[in-house]
Amino acid sequence: MVSETVPTSWLVYCRPGFESDALAELLHHAALQGIACEPSHGEGWVSLTRVDGEAVNDLHRQAAFKKLIFARQSLAALPALTLSRDDRLTAILEQVKASRWSFEEIWHETPDTNDGKALAGLIKALTKPLESMLKKRGALRRSAGARRLHIFWTDGDQVQLAMSFPGNRSDLINGIRRLRFPSRAPSRSTLKLEEAWHEFIPRDEWDVRLAPHMQAADLGAAPGGWTWQLVQRGMYVYAIDNGPMESQLMKTGQIDHLKEDGFTWEPPQRLDWLVCDIVDKPVRVLAMVERWLIRKWCKEAIFNLKLPMKKRWDEVTRCLTALEESLEKAGVHASVSCRHLYHDREEVTVHVRLRD
Fold first, then answer.
1. Binding site for S-adenosyl-L-methionine: what residues are annotated?
2. What are the backbone angles phi and psi of residue 301, rounded to the nearest 5°?
3. Residues with Cβ within 8 Å of residue 300, at least 6 apart in sequence
4. pLDDT for position 2
5. Residue 128 annotated among the catalytic residues of the structure
6. Which residues are noted in the entry as S-adenosyl-L-methionine-binding (predicted)?
7. Which of 215, 294, 329, 330 is least crowded, fewest Cβ atoms below 10 Å from its Cβ?
8. Domains of the chain
9. 271-276 and 236-240: which strand pairing?
10. What local confidence, expressed as pLDDT, does residue 264 receive?
11. Which residue of the set 306, 310, 311, 329 is catalytic?
12. Residues marked as binding?
């Protein structure tokens, strides 16, 4: 049947425990386009399937990956398959043939769970035989528009085949950016800021937008995880926190540690960067950041918003809408992005760049 050969589902990976938030976000985008969908989910993933059996491509394309908050990966997916444990490859080959898909590479992925990781041995054993068969059938080939086939394994006999397209996907396996913790950094929170730079700033712009001799403020800095990243880029930092900073970090001579309240401190001049990972209510952090941006005390800002245990999607959209409305009312032009990063937990990371 035609419905079995077209991608009727929008499949998204997310952090385990955030399935309801990712699903709320997908349903929001489906509603914007007036498309009725049936939701489903498992640990670390969610999907919407069109109830009319039509292809999900337009919905997938219109809800651009770079604008999604809780999604680690965004795919157009075929109906899920149950495989025979005696012959796992035939059903996959038949569905690829029926879909008429062609692609340049294959990624085998699993949910970000212990059960998912346990499938690594099985996937490894099947990878080369499957690639060989798909090459012979002409599905896996060069010059296929940089399309990628994702084989999403939720169990040893449960898979879903999906397609991703250049410019509208994560180019990281499972959508996860794994960074090495620098041993000299004062805390593991340093990885949050490093990942945010990778996420929000194109790598070829780092030398200009994260340049040596820039000036930055780190609000709620102690013990210095985020300040350490700024110092590594050669910046001079106002570290604002009543708590102590790590002693070796202070020896760099690039830090002015001020034991003041990050919510009330004002910079002596316009800075290049504001960063903030203060643990407080989102509304309070947002009010402080809005003041900085409206008064143009910085050119760019990265800050975290701590989320409630329930209805996180509602809270995030409320916060972002309030921020954008405040900036617009003040006549401040800015681009605002938000992402639930891999190194985040109960928070999302927001990036704002002022447009002079």
1. 189, 222-225, 241, 261, 277
2. -140, 140
3. 209, 272, 273, 274, 351, 352, 353, 354
4. 39
5. no
6. 189, 222-225, 241, 261, 277
7. 329
8. 2-175 (3.30.2130.30), 190-354 (3.40.50.150)
9. unpaired
10. 96
11. 306
12. 189, 222-225, 241, 261, 277
